[in-house]
Prior knowledge:
The complex is a heterodimer.
Chain A: H1 36-50, E1 58-62, H2 66-69, E2 79-82, H3 88-98, E3 103-109, H4 110-116, H5 118-127, E4 131-137, E5 140-141, E6 147-148, H6 171-177, E7 182-187, H7 191-203, E8 207-213, H8 229-235, E9 261-265, E10 271-276, H9 286-298, E11 301-309, H10 316-320, H11 332-335, H12 339-350
Parallel strand pairs in A: 1-2, 1-3, 3-4, 4-8, 7-8, 10-11
Antiparallel strand pairs in A: 5-6, 7-11, 9-10
Helix pairs in contact in A: 1-7, 3-5, 4-5, 6-9
Chain B: E1 4-5, E2 7-15, H1 20-33, E3 38-43, E4 52-60, E5 73-76, H2 82-87, E6 94-98, E7 111-115, H3 117-124, H4 129-145, H5 149-159, H6 164-184, E8 191-192, E9 203-206, H7 207-217, E10 222-225, H8 232-245, E11 256-259, H9 263-276, E12 280-284, H10 286-302, E13 306-312, H11 329-333, E14 343-345, H12 350-367, E15 370-376, H13 377-381, E16 383-386, H14 405-410, E17 439-441, H15 455-472, E18 480-482, E19 489-494, H16 498-510, E20 515-520, E21 522-523, H17 527-535, E22 538-543, H18 549-557, E23 566-570, H19 579-594
Parallel strand pairs in B: 1-8, 2-5, 5-6, 6-7, 10-11, 10-12, 12-13, 13-15, 14-15, 19-20, 19-22, 22-23
Antiparallel strand pairs in B: 2-4, 3-4, 9-16, 14-21, 18-20
Helix pairs in contact in B: 1-4, 1-5, 3-4, 3-6, 4-6, 5-6, 7-8, 7-12, 9-10, 16-19
Amino acid sequence: MSDKPARxxxxxxxxxxxxxxxxxxxxxxxxxxxxxxxxxxxxxxNAAWENGIQPHRIAKMSGxxxxxxxxxxxxxxxHGFNTVHGRMPSxxxxxxxxxxxxxxxxxxxxxxxxxxxxGQLIHAIRRNxxxxxxxxxxxxxxxxxxxxxxxxxxxxxxxxGPINETQPIDLCALAINLGCTFVARxxxxxxxxxxxxxxxxxSHKGFALIDVISPCVTFNNNDESMKSYGYVKxxxxxxxxxxxxxxxNPITEVEVPEGHFRDITLHDGSTIRxxxxxxxxxxxxxxxxxxxxxxxxxxxxxxxxxxYFDNTKASLTEDLGxxxxxxxxxxxxxxxxxxxxxxxxxxxxxx
Amino acid sequence: MENIVNDFTINIxxxxxxGSQSANLILLQSLFDMGVPVSGKNLFPSNISGLPTWYIxxxxxxxxxxxxxxxxxxxxxxxxxxxxDLAALEPGTVVVWNENSKLEMDRDDVISYPxxxxxxxxxxxxxxxxxxxxxxxxxxxxxxxxxEQSALESAVAKQFKGKDSxxxxxxxxxxxxxxxxxxxxxxxxxxxxxxxxxxxxxxxxEGNEAVALxxxxxxxxxxxxxxITPSSSLAEGMINWIPKIRTNDDGEATCxxxxxxxxLAAAGMVLGAGWAGGRGMTATSGPxxxxxxxxxxxxxxxxxxxxxxxxxxxxxxxxLPTRTQQSDITMLYEGSHGDTQHIVLFPGTVEECFExxxxxxxYTEKFQTPVFGMSDLDLGMNRWAxxxxxxxxxxxxxxxxxxxxxxxxxFEEFGRYLDVDGDGIPYRTLPGSGMAPILYRGTGHNPMxxxxxxxxxxxxxxxxxxxxxxxxxxxLPAPIxxxxxxCEIGIIxxxxxxxxxxxxxxxxESTGLKVSQCRLRALPAHSEIEKFIERHETxxxxxxxxxxxxxxxxxxxxxxxxxxxxxxxxxxxxxxxRAKIYADMILESLKEGSQ
Lengths: 351, 595
C-alpha cells in the first residue's frame, strides 16, 4: 500500500449480507486503556461481521464485572441485557425459551462465572442451551479493585495481602466433565485464533464455552515488576495521584502455531506460556482434552485451541418440545385457548 | 337428644404416607356430592411418611369453611398422637377409634365407638391392611352420620378413576366398616348429615390448580420453577394441563417449562422471557421469594414484565413448611433493596385464583413491572367449591410494545424510558426487531436507556417509577365490599381469610356488633380502601400473621388523619384461621380502643 498513491476514498468492505463492519461496532470503551477485554470485543465484532450475521438478530448478554460491561462496546445494533452478578445464564435461558431464533452471545468474567455464577454456568451447560459463552478470564476482581478470583493460579501475588494458595478452577476442564458440547481456550492477544474459535462457536448448535485468558492491566500484577501498578505508583509519588491507572498498550498480537508454545510477557513483566493444541488432537476425545489440560497445568502452561467438540447431543430447543416458530411470534389467540376449551374443562370438573 | 345436622367438625388423626389422604378425600367428596356445604383442611407434616397428619372436615349449612372452634367428631388412628388428641377433646365429643391400636381409651366423658379397624382391614387383605384401615373408618363414619351409600360409591369411583380392583377393594372395606357399626354398636350421638338440594352444580378444586389453568389461559409462554411446598402443585398443574390445552396437533407446546436449578435461576428465566417479549412466570413460596429479591429489583428498575406466584407458608426461615400464613405481604410489596414498590394480587377464592392467573400477565405487560400473585397453603393446597371458571372477559393486554416499523418511525424520538404519554409507562421494542436496540441494565440510566449517574436522571427515573405504580392502584381489582348501613366498624382483610370472614362477622353480630367487610384484592391499595376507612368510625385490619403487615402498609399510605381509625388484628399459629380466635381479638381490640 505504502508505495501506491493514496486514494481519496476506499470502497467500504462489505460482508456476505452487504453490511460494513461499522454495523457491528459499539460505543467507546470505558475499561482501562490496554485492557485485553477490548481486544476480545474487537474479535466479537469481527467474527460476527465475517460470519454475516444480521446484527439485530444477536442478543448480547452479560452479568456484572469489567467483562460484563463490554456489551456496550460492540454490536450497537443488537439488544442486550447487562443482568446481575453471575446470573446471565438464567436470563439468557428465559429469553431463549421464548425466542430461540436469536444468536445469544454471553460475556462473563472469572468472578461472574467461576464464583458467584458457577451454578448457573453449570446448569446452562447441562441444558446444552444454544449460546456462545465467553469468559474473559483475568484471575482478579477488577471493578472492586483487585481481589483474587477462583481462577487465580496458585502463587499469584497481588500488591497487598498474601500469595494465593487456593487452587484454581479450570473452567474448561469443568465444562468438558459436564459434557459441554464446545470447549475452547484462547488468549486475548491471539486475535486470529480467537476469531476462528468464535466464528465456529457462533455456528455451533449447543453451548459453546470459550475461556479467554485476558490479563488485567491494572490489578493482576505484583510490586516487584517494573511495570506493575505499585511500581508506577511509587515512582509517581510526587503527583499525588492515588487513583493513577498506568496506560499500557494492548498485548502484542501473538499467534502460536499448532503444537508449539510461546512465552508471552504480560503488562506486569511476568510471563505466561501458551501452547496451541496440536493438529493431532482429536476434539471429540474428552479424555485427550482433559489430559492436555492436566499436562499443561503440570508444565505451567496454558493450552489453547478447540479442546472439545460434540455435535451429536440434543440442545435445549429439542428438549423443550415447542412449536417451530419462536414463542414470541405465536399470536395471542393461539396462546389463549378458546372458550369452548374452558367450557369442557368446567364440565369435566363437574363430572 | 336433639339432632345436630350439617353443623359440626370432624377431625381425623392419622399418619402421613398411610393412604389416609385418599380416604379423607372420599369422605369429603361424598358429603359434597350430597349437597352438604363442606370444606376440608389437610394439616400435613413436612415429611414423606410416618408423621402425624390431621384432616379437618367442617360441615356447615351456614357455609362456614374455617375449621370449627372445637372438634365434634374425632377419629383416632394414629398411635403417635393418640394421648394428645384424646386429651384435647371436650366432653361429649364422639370418638371413633381403632380398637386394635393397643392404646387405651381412657376418657369416659366422651361418646366412644371402638372399631377393630386393623382387624377388619386384615380380613380383606393382610398386605394392604394399613391402607384399608383408613377406608374402614370412612365406612363406620358413613353409618354413624348417615352418609348415602350412592354418594360414597361415586366418590370412590372418582378417587380411583377406572382402577376396578382398587374400587372393589375400597368399596368392600367401606361396607365392612359400615356393617361393623350397624351390627355391634348403637348410635348415641346427635350428629347427622342430610343431603341438600344442589342449586348450582359445583366441583372441588385446589387454588393452585386454578392459578395454573388461569395462567395458561393468560397465554403463559414460560414457566420456570424450583420445587417448593406449597407451590409445587401449581407448577405441576401447568405441566399437567399444557399437553391438553396448549399444544398443536403435533403435540408441540406454546408454553415452555424449565425446572430451574434454584429460585434465583427461576426468577432469572422469568426476566429473560419478559425482556425478550414473552410472558414468563414462576411459582414459589416465601423462601423462594427471599432468594429472588435481586432479580425483583432488576425487573422493577429495568422495567421487565415478570410474574411471580407466591403460595405463602409459615416463616420466617424454613418455618413451618406445610402450614399456612399471610406473611409475605411486605416482602412482596417492597421487595428488593432500594426504594421499590410492586403490584401484588391477592385472590380470595379459587375463581379469583383463575382470574388473577391470567390478569397478572396483562398487568405486568401493561405496567412493565413485576407482578406478584399471593395465595397461601390454605387456598392453594386445600379443595374449595367452585361453580366453574369464567372465560377471560378481556383480550390480552400486551402493553406498549412497538412491533411495526411504521409505528416506530412515527416516534419523533424513541427512548426506552421516555415518558411519552405522561403516564409513566414508556414504550419498548423487542430484541431481534432491530428497532432502537439498547443494553438493558440494572445500573442507573437516562430516558434513552444509557448509563447515567446524574442526579437529575436518577431522580426523574425514580419519580416516574413511583408515579407509574401509583397510577396502577385503581386499574387493579377493586376491593369487594359488604357494608352495613351503620358504618361503625369496618374490617379490611385479604386472601384466604375470605373463607373465615363470614363466621367472624356472625360471631361479632351475635354480640350486637355490626361490621362491614372490605376484602382488599391488590396492592397498591385501591382508592376505595381509603374511602372505606374514611366512612367507618373504626377499621380493623385483619390478617394471618404476627406483625400486621397490611396494617403497616396502609398506615404508611393513608392520610395521617385517618391513621387513628385503623386497628391491627393479626394472629397466626400456623393453623388455618379459626373464626372465634379472630372474633375475640377484634372484640378485645375494640374494647381497648374505647377505653
